[in-house]
Design brief:
disordered N terminus; Ald_DH_N; 16 helices; seven-stranded mixed β-sheet; Aldehyde_DH_dom; binds the ligand O=C(O)C(=O)/C=C/C=C/O
Length: about 475
């Protein structure tokens, strides 16, 4: 594997049964850097044949060394993966920023360290797991044992590629499963390197497999339809989630989904505005707004509305959009042309819907190449405007005033999403009351994206199915068997 010494990328091949390999038909597709539209390398284009090879390897590996390996040894392997990720942090951060367009400081301080922590966390957590037992009078004793689900398909998004891949792969392996990973076509590089890191850490051949591909009838579709894949875990757009569910239905696969969101950020007038602004800049624009948890619907209690908007616009204007590898860049490039056009389309729609663009609103000056969009704040939109209701997944937020608590809760809950929400207030009772009423799976009060990996993580409604995190990951990545012994 060519390590990164220049601003170029690497060629990405499949990783099946412990070996890198090209596609059987030698087909490849080009991987492009969204920050300058230059070629980073080629990617093996996988399909049904490569998925079949990977699933066969994963099935065989289920009953090999991985099954007989003592729990403490498997825990050490996961810990070693985390260690090796940290050893290669700079290389992995560079690859992640080349693939995604996100600033290198973000890859280096969040994406890659969190990827390592995902493995370190589950390496520890897996050794603390218990199950349950019940004494049935003097008649019988019942006890439950956890067994792996089996072969798991991991279909990975492009916004936080390594953070999210490891968030799923770590518990998947901790529970004794084997994995076939399908990275997003725009971000193949860190997943490709992760495969060799797993092998170096002692993961037996066939336990971890990577198959690249894109578009319809590709590796992703083959993985979701494969009869010998027991479960699918997916993070991404709600519409793709629906398609996967249909494909997985015939073989009744177990599904874990973290899907889209249109997350409210509710700011009451009694909150500390400076503290609110510092976090709201992040929850609005970090990672180019390409985070499913971003607070893209901002509701401000009317007494604080004008001051908030004025200060929020001023701070947003200070943000630097540009080269992900340049010191001082706050916002990098969007993932690719298609998404760039889609987000710009929403900004145009906001104008048509009567919105006022307070700052941003398009492509920044001075960029010949690359998919850059200015951080954009929109006010004066009706609550039913599409830009208020639909996920934009870019550096674009709407700000809406409200007067009454019940009013803002009703507006916030009037959505088919229900992933996360932030609530800002110093009124303790109101914080609990509003948190209790908001329909979302993840609520932050006076903060955002503060993560404790033991907590249940996932969305309601069309934002997801199931929860991952701590015990909840094991609920998904294992099967509980109850054994009843007659005394
Ligand atoms: O922090 C996490 O565990 C996580 O899953 C973040 C998801 C962000 C999606 O865009």
């Amino acid at each position: 594997m060519k390590t990164i010494t220049t601003a170029t990328g690497i060629d990405c091949r499949h990783f099946i049964n412990g070996q890198y390999m090209d596609s059987i038909n030698n087909k490849t597709f080009v991987n492009t850097n969204p920050a300058n539209e230059e070629v980073l390398g080629t990617v093996a284009e996988g399909g049904e044949e490569e998925i079949n090879l990977a699933v066969t390897a994963a099935r065989r590996a289920l009953n090999g060394r991985w099954k007989t390996m003592p729990l403490t040894e498997r825990s050490k392997v996961l810990r070693k993966i985390g260690d090796l990720i940290l050893e290669r942090k700079d290389e992995l951060a560079r690859l992640e920023s080349l693939d995604t367009g996100k600033p290198i400081w973000l890859s280096s301080t969040i994406d890659i360290p969190r990827a390592a922590y995902n493995f370190h966390f589950f390496a520890d957590y897996m050794t603390t797991m218990g199950t349950e037992a019940y004494q049935h009078d003097d008649v019988a004793i019942n006890y439950a044992v956890r067994k792996p689900v089996g072969v798991v398909g991991l279909i990975n998004p492009w916004n936080l590629p390594m953070l999210l891949l490891t968030w799923k792969l770590a518990p998947c392996l901790a529970a004794g499963n084997t994995a076939v990973m399908k990275p997003a076509e725009w971000t193949p590089m860190t997943a490709t390197v992760l495969a060799e890191i797993c092998k170096e850490a002692g993961v037996p051949d066939g336990v971890v497999n990577v198959v690249h591909g894109f578009g319809p009838n590709s590796a992703g579709a083959a993985l979701t339809e494969h009869p010998d894949v027991d479960a699918i875990t997916f993070t991404g757009e709600t519409s793709t989630g629906t398609a996967i569910m249909k494909a997985a239905a015939n073989s009744l696969k177990k599904l874990s989904y973290e899907l889209g969101g249109k997350n409210p950020n509710i700011i009451f007038a009694d909150s500390d505005l400076d503290e609110v602004l510092e976090t709201t800049i992040k929850s609005s624009f970090i990672n180019q707004g390409e985070v499913c948890l971003c607070g893209s619907r901002i509701y401000v209690e009317r007494p604080a509305y004008d001051e908030f908007v004025e200060k929020f616009v001023a701070k947003t204007k200070e943000l630097v959009v540009g080269d992900p590898f340049k010191e001082g860049t706050n916002i990098g490039a969007m993932i690719g042309k298609e998404h760039y056009d889609r987000v710009l389309g929403y900004i145009d729609l906001a104008r048509e819907e009567g919105g006022t663009i307070r700052t941003g609103g398009g492509r920044p000056e001075g960029f010949e190449k690359g998919y850059y969009i200015e951080p954009t704040i929109i006010t004066d939109l009706d609550r039913n405007a599409r830009c208020v209701r639909e996920e934009i997944f870019g550096p674009v937020v709407t700000v809406i005033p409200f007067d009454l608590e019940d009013e803002v809760i009703a507006q916030v809950n009037d959505s088919h999403y229900g992933l996360s929400a932030s609530i800002w207030t110093n009124d303790l009772r109101r914080a609990h009351r509003v948190a209790n009423e908001v329909e979302a799976g993840i609520i932050w009060v006076n903060t955002w994206f503060l993560r404790d990996l033991r907590t249940p993580f996932g969305g309601l409604k069309q934002s997801g199915i199931g929860r991952e995190g701590g015990m909840h990951s094991f609920e998904f990545y294992s099967e509980l068997k109850n054994i009843c012994i007659k005394l």
